[in-house]
Amino acid sequence: MNYKKLLAEKDEEYALDVVSYMQNGTVVDITAALSLSAARISRAYKLPMGRQYYLCGFTAL
Known about the structure:
- The chain is mostly helical.
- The chain has 2 domains: 1-25, no CATH class; 31-61, no CATH class.
- Helix content is 66%, strand content 0%.
- The longest helix is centred in the middle third of the chain and has 13 residues, at 32-44.
- The protein starts with a helix and ends with a helix.
């Protein structure tokens, strides 16, 4: 969910709280190996994958 959507669906205070919380995270480079591993795990456990992760992994190949 992005800030613009949060702002439209909730209010500015809530949206800023979410942004603040997300900034505490860690950004990890998605390598081809990591992307392929995620795809295997997703398939094995029948889990959906976010489109951005799917595309990042395969554009890295």
